Amino acid sequence: MNRTPSRPLTEDEIHTLVDDQLAPDALTALQTRLAQDPAAQATVTKWRRQRDALRSLHQHLVDQPVPATLMTAARQTAASQQDINQWWRWGGMAAGVMLAFGVGWFSHTAWQGERQPSSTLARASGAPDFVRQASFAHAVYAPEIRHPVEVTAAEQEHLVQWLSKRVGKPLKVPHLAAQGYELVGGRLLPGEAGARAQFMFQNAAGTRITLYLGAMDKSGAGADIRETGFQFRADGPIPSFYWIDQGFGYALSGPVPRDALMKLAEAVYHQL
User: Fold this and answer.
1) Partners of 209 in the beta sheet?
2) pLDDT top residue among 62 and 171
């Protein structure tokens, strides 16, 4: 007696098999059909391998207890809930994941202090928010593989013209080849005082740094914005050097040692 062939498994049914999301009776029924569907068998095998590979990725980190320094830094960062909520809306889950890894990184290094290369200048009251936003922007977009920027370096002329128009100031992309970094591209971002720009650079090791810039907020608490020399801050997920010049803020952010980040910031400052 010939057995009537069963209908091929759908993609959703294959997913439920791979994810082990079935009751025993339903599982038995699907496995019976799977035995008659060689194409589905191959897909199940392939997807299970991918699942196991993903589960094993960084498993040694997942199994470790959360460091006390990370918990402290996370609570401090959570105090700025407005910034976190804003970047969560823009960056989705990537912001939360990179916040966890970024906060752990900078709290472990425990950087403190600041540097002013010229005369003592007043610290702008609006600068901390500006730098945190630059840090969150880096944390959201730097890890991206396929879409780290809106416009790539191949269209640099268009990128500069577009961002210059949106931020209301002629912009210039610094050249950091001497420091080992090449332009990846850039994107447009929102800010309290209007549009802001982000330029991303990458070295041969794949490390990325970002230059975030835009007009500072001159209303309310930030009305006394004044120029500053270099300031170092590490109260966001990624440490940054920043400065303010003629009403524009600049922040260079990246997961690199403080001295290296300072030298990069100086190179950017002299070119701009």
Assistant:
1) 201
2) 171
